[in-house]
Amino acid sequence: MGRAAFWQGYRDCAPFLVVVVPFAMLFGAVARDAGLDLLQVMAMSVLVIAGASQFTALTLLQDQAPVFVALMAALAVNLRMALYSAALVPHVGHAGLGARALMSYLMVDQAFAVAVKTYEERPQMTPGEKVAYYFGVMMLICPVWYGCTLLGALVGRAIPPELSLDFAAPICFIALTAPLLRSLPHVVAALAAVLAAIGFHGFPAGLGLISAALVGIVAGAQAELWLGRRARGRA
């Protein structure tokens, strides 16, 4: 059963390759243009495995920001992983320390979104199947991220600018978020976060993204409370 769950996760995450491939290639190409050598580009992708924070750190380093500032900004952008981890605890928190450490290292947005959606739709999954499924979704995305980063670093300068590989980032996050908007609080949280992100765009060091996330959380929680009060009033 565990093997079947693993391969099911592997297949379920396959559609995201459409955006992961160009996104990884874009990072490899941009990092090389910024002056990083091949070893530095690959070390960054292997150690971080998070496109948004990698681009954030790279941009700040290009602007001659101190390394500490670049690292803190990348960490701020990646704080969403802490929320992902908390959401996954009820499903895979029973796994051993080594397995959980590997899960945390390999965690990416796509793996989290696909896994949580499946866990909610299939509550009959056993704890072992949930762990196997999660490794399945991760084991497809991460090697592709490494390989396409390398490809972008090697041939990125030969890619015509009109191909506009940067389309991958927004499409990827839209594809991740849209299936999870299943209730009014979800929609309220998403809209509030989007509007706040636009309003906080000028905040330094990734703080606008974190602030927008907090606004979205508060708005979604308030919508949930309002619906609860409305339901009690009708009872």
From TrEMBL:
<keyword id="KW-0472">Membrane</keyword>
<dbReference type="InterPro" id="IPR011606">
    <property type="entry name" value="Brnchd-chn_aa_trnsp_permease"/>
</dbReference>
<dbReference type="Pfam" id="PF03591">
    <property type="entry name" value="AzlC"/>
</dbReference>
<keyword id="KW-0812">Transmembrane</keyword>
<dbReference type="GO" id="GO:0005886">
    <property type="term" value="C:plasma membrane"/>
</dbReference>
<feature type="transmembrane region" description="Helical">
    <location>
        <begin position="67"/>
        <end position="89"/>
    </location>
</feature>
<keyword id="KW-1003">Cell membrane</keyword>
<feature type="transmembrane region" description="Helical">
    <location>
        <begin position="14"/>
        <end position="31"/>
    </location>
</feature>
<feature type="transmembrane region" description="Helical">
    <location>
        <begin position="131"/>
        <end position="155"/>
    </location>
</feature>
<keyword id="KW-0813">Transport</keyword>
<dbReference type="GO" id="GO:1903785">
    <property type="term" value="P:L-valine transmembrane transport"/>
</dbReference>
<feature type="transmembrane region" description="Helical">
    <location>
        <begin position="206"/>
        <end position="227"/>
    </location>
</feature>
<feature type="transmembrane region" description="Helical">
    <location>
        <begin position="167"/>
        <end position="200"/>
    </location>
</feature>
<keyword id="KW-1133">Transmembrane helix</keyword>
<comment type="similarity">
    <text>Belongs to the AzlC family.</text>
</comment>
<protein>
    <submittedName>
        <fullName>Putative branched-subunit amino acid permease</fullName>
    </submittedName>
</protein>
<feature type="transmembrane region" description="Helical">
    <location>
        <begin position="38"/>
        <end position="61"/>
    </location>
</feature>
